[in-house]
Design brief:
This protein is of the alpha+beta class. It is built from 16 helices and 42 strands.
Length: 760
């Protein structure tokens, strides 16, 4: 199935791409910005005994503070949500089976399983368990974390049988790929030729039943400065990676090499992508044993489906006298474009309110997932029917999106080639959710309208869909109201945000309020139901106290707010680019503007306002801590970037230079230093109470920056600085539901204790 995110951030990585231009070491040294004194460099040794002893001491201190009786009840309540057997078991169709990965209390590491459609539609499906990850971990003495399965497309009429399973030993990004036989429910023995690739960062694709395309850092294969795979090989059954012939290479200072084979019958093709950085790439297709580059600017996102090639430019794209706007979606015939034609059809053009988030192909139709002021809109396009000017395809609205909700449409199985006997080639899934609306899974079908339907006013493409599964409600969501507001940032930009609060909210500035944000990598924060937020924040109540409204004592619940700041993808590439590099401050000004707007409206006050963010969101709230301490009483900062002078030297940090800039370049360090929280700490400032949390096994951002920030703050004598580091769990901070519940409970409990005046 072909589903493509419009934002370029998810994976990073040309044939024999040229290395960076050479320069003498003296020249380079003269141009490297000096590093400020760092008394905490010793904490950068992630697994050192002394360093882990420091971590354990910090963990014990934090647990002593937070893990009281109220915390235990909160953690149990969150775990009940995560382990609920009433959650929707989301599935992916391959052949006649619907596959699912499931974790709960009895299976904390999870079950990889499958069922039939008829059984899935019942309240209690009968699951065929293929792999019990808990049993595997116990038998092999390895703490495996399941990271997905890639099934080999079988010969026509044959069932799916072989799969590559991605297993991480610690929850990090490095995986071991092992061949699995779903018929026998066993791993294929490497001694008998079964594929078993060493743990490493990389990617794998089936070429045929006996050949893999592998990009890896294992067995001495080179890695990029970003720690990802630099080289791809063609690996035949029985060979080792070291023996395999080289297929594709990228420059060391590029981000990542990616290889993939499209096995769609009649459109079999092998692709390679040189990810130069997060937002620039070169794409190649293999022709006659060599690589042919698909010519386009490096900031144009390309994707192929059958006979079509789609383009989404990150910047305005001038081509043959026409300028295609950033964030638009364009189409050309695949072979026509390779032959030199530049006749593009315009499928979508953004406006100031509407952006393209992702797209997905069924066999014959294209589904577009749009956001209009951060609420979903869905459209269906038919390549066989003209729809207007610029070669556009017929477009129909898919009516399934209530206001202030997130609804995503994607294909069930675009490879299903049996349209005349109940095939699913033009079926689609719909997943709908909102802050107070538990997720619903629907399934629908697309077809072209008959002549009589068109004459009666029907759209060109007719869709029908019905609910299949619905998640339960984990809190009394009817008691809460979702509103959207707009704050005005420092430069006059209107910044939307969502507010979730009790319907009887009193605007007296006394409501404990949690403000969440991200603002980076063109990632959008959209409405989403969270039983955890409902239970851990909205439904918690303060002790009864007299209000400022003249009424008697009353308690109140928490207010949850999500800010859609620049740097994200809510309004497309321009919204993202507005906060890149030297303009990073705009994201922080936006977030601060939302905080001020909440205070000015009487929702909360500085004493009742806290913020939370993870990863790039951790950098966001780190800048709230250091640049806007007067706005917040509490900051929860997770798996964060904080030391922006050394971030490119830590874990996968080099891969984010396109987002933040290169601190080794003196001119760029001059602006990066203005949003490096580690270097913005000052004596004599009243900082918010601070909780910094991370994971030892996070091999993306890593735990180092979090460690150093906490150590520096504590050494400066800043009160109420707390630190916790999970010893496993990767960038997510947790590898099972129990760990996830503990992580979320600590953050929520810390914020509540600080903002609500004590435990509730």
């Amino acid at each position: 199935m072909t589903t493509t995110a419009a934002d370029p951030a998810s994976a990073p990585g040309s044939p024999s791409a040229p290395a960076s231009s050479a320069a003498s070491s003296a020249d380079l040294a003269a141009r490297v910005a000096p590093e400020p004194t760092d008394e905490n460099v010793w904490l950068e040794e992630i697994y050192g005994e002394e360093q882990l002893a420091w971590v354990r001491e910090q963990n014990a201190r934090t647990e002593d503070l937070l893990e009281d009786a109220d915390y235990a009840g909160l953690e149990g309540s969150i775990l009940e949500v995560l382990d609920s057997t009433d959650r929707i078991a989301m599935v992916g169709k391959r052949g006649d089976w619907y596959y699912n990965f499931w974790k709960d209390r009895q299976n904390p590491k999870g079950l990889w399983r499958r069922t039939t459609w008829e059984s899935y539609c019942t309240e209690t499906p009968e699951w065929d368990v293929l792999l019990d990850v808990d049993a595997l971990a116990a038998s092999e003495g390895e703490d495996w974390v399941f990271h997905g399965a890639t099934l080999l497309r079988p010969a026509t009429g044959e069932p799916h049988r072989l799969a590559l399973l991605a297993l991480s030993p610690d929850g990090g990004d490095a995986n071991r790929y092992r061949e699995f036989d779903v018929g026998t429910r066993t791993f294929v023995d490497p001694a008998a030729g079964g594929f078993d690739l060493p743990t490493a960062k990389g990617n794998v694709s089936w070429l045929d039943p006996d050949t893999l395309l592998v990009a890896s850092t294992a067995e001495g294969l080179p890695r990029t400065a970003s720690s990802y795979a630099r080289t791809a090989v063609t690996l035949r059954r029985g060979e080792s990676l070291g023996q395999a012939p080289r297929l594709f290479d990228v420059a060391e200072d590029h981000m990542m090499a990616v290889v993939a084979h499209d096995s769609t019958p009649g459109f079999e093709r092998t692709f390679a992508v040189d990810y130069i950085d997060f937002f620039n790439r070169r794409t190649f297709v293999q022709r006659d044993g060599s690589w042919l580059e698909i010519e386009a600017p490096t900031d144009v996102n390309l994707s192929a489906h059958r006979e079509w090639l789609l383009f989404r430019p990150q910047r305005d794209w001038p081509l043959n006298g026409t300028t295609y706007p950033a964030g638009s979606l364009l189409a050309a015939g695949f072979e026509d474009y390779l032959a030199g034609s530049r006749d593009l059809s315009v499928l979508f053009t953004p406006d100031e309110h509407t952006s393209l988030q992702s797209w997905s192909w069924t066999r014959d139709f294209l589904l577009l997932n749009l956001l209009r002021d951060v609420s979903s809109e869905l459209r269906v396009l038919d390549p066989s029917l003209p729809g207007g000017s610029s070669g556009a395809w017929a477009s129909s609205l898919l009516d399934a999106c209530p206001p202030l909700h997130d609804v995503n449409a994607y294909a069930v199985d675009d490879e299903d080639e049996s349209p005349d006997d109940g095939g699913a080639g033009n079926d689609f899934w719909l997943v709908a959710t909102g802050f107070t609306t538990p997720s619903t899974l629907m399934r629908g079908t697309l077809r072209r309208a008959a002549a009589e339907e068109k004459s009666a006013g029907a759209p060109a493409v007719v869709s029908s869909h019905a609910a299949v599964k619905a998640s339960p409600s984990f809190f009394d969501d009817g008691q809460y109201e979702v509103q959207q507001h707009f704050a005005v940032s420092a430069d006059g930009t209107r910044v939307p945000y969502f507010q979730v609060a009790s319907r009887d909210l009193v605007l007296d500035g006394q409501n404990p309020t949690q403000l969440s944000g991200y603002g980076g990598f063109e990632i959008s924060r959209t409405p989403a139901y969270s039983g955890t937020v409902g239970r851990a924040w909205l439904e918690r109540r303060t002790a009864e106290a007299a209000g400022t409204d003249g009424e008697g004592p009353h308690s109140r619940g928490g207010v949850y707010v999500v800010a859609n700041i620049r740097g994200g993808g809510e309004y497309g590439p321009s919204w993202h680019r507005a906060a890149l590099k030297e303009n990073r401050h705009r994201a922080y000004q936006d977030f601060a503007a939302v905080a001020r707007h909440l205070i000015s409206r009487g929702v909360t006050s500085r004493e009742r306002l806290g913020c939370v963010g993870g990863s790039n969101g951790g950098l966001l709230v780190g800048n709230m801590l250091t640049q806007y301490p007067e706005l917040f009483a509490a900051v929860s900062c997770g798996v964060p970037l904080l030391d922006m002078r050394r971030y490119t030297k830590l874990s996968a940090g080099h891969s984010w230079i396109a987002e933040y800039g290169d601190p080794d370049v003196p001119e760029e360090w001059e602006y990066i230093r203005t949003f490096s929280p580690y270097h913005l700490l000052k004596d004599g400032v009243e900082y918010p109470e601070t909780f910094i949390w991370t994971a030892t096994s996070d091999d993306r951002v890593g735990p180092v920056q979090a460690r150093k920030m906490a150590a520096r703050m504590q050494a400066m004598g800043i009160p109420n600085v707390w630190y916790h580091e999970a010893l496993e769990g990767g960038h997510a901070g947790a590898s099972d539901n129990r760990q996830a519940a503990a992580l979320q409970a600590r953050s929520q409990h810390f914020l509540w204790r600080t903002l609500a005046g004590g435990p509730a």
